[in-house]
Design a protein that fits this description.
With about 150 residues, the chain is of the alpha+beta class. It has five helices and four strands, in the order βαββαβααα. It has a four-stranded antiparallel β-sheet with strand order 2-3-1-4, with helices on both faces. The longest helix is centred in the middle third of the chain and has 18 residues. The protein is globular and about 55 Å long. The termini are far apart.
């Protein structure tokens, strides 16, 4: 019996509620590992992740097509929020903002995207999250209205 084979690479980007800088370096790695575990449990493979203080980038190989990207994001946000709050990893109550960006890449771009995500700290010394996100939307020719973007306060 024939099987289904795919090779789809997606970068997800989503932000903390109110763009609060709640993810400190002390808890960043623990949050990243937990999120990777969620992806793994859903049959996906994370290739790179970086949790900035107010937003996260996740680059993954979309393998399990039985779950939609929107349902996957919902599970990741819900389960990671519960984990962060139960473990009291952030000073205040933690939650993610509504919405996300999902951007697809070719296999030939994989290494570049991984490097980009792993170098987020350096990258954001030069560019704000808003500028970065709008640049993604424009590069992928996604029409948008400013009032429907994340809550940007820069």
């Amino acid at each position: 019996m024939p099987n289904t084979y795919t090779q789809i690479y997606i970068q997800l980007v989503f932000a903390t509620k109110g763009r609060d800088s709640q993810i400190t370096n002390l808890v960043r790695e623990e949050i990243e590992k937990y999120i990777c575990g969620i992806f793994n449990n859903k049959g996906q493979k994370v290739m790179a992740i970086y949790a900035n203080p107010d937003h996260v980038h996740i680059f993954f190989s979309y393998k399990n097509l039985q779950i939609t990207i929107s349902d996957l994001v919902k599970v990741v946000k819900t389960e990671s929020t519960n984990f962060i709050n139960e473990k009291k990893l952030c000073v205040n109550h933690f939650t993610w903002q509504q919405g996300y960006g999902a951007f697809s890449y070719a296999k030939s771009q994989k290494e570049r995207v991984v490097n980009y995500i792993l170098n987020q700290e350096t990258h954001h010394e030069k560019k704000s999250f808003r500028d970065e996100y709008v640049e993604f939307l424009n590069a992928f020719e996604i029409e948008f209205k400013d009032e429907y973007l994340f809550e940007f306060y820069d």
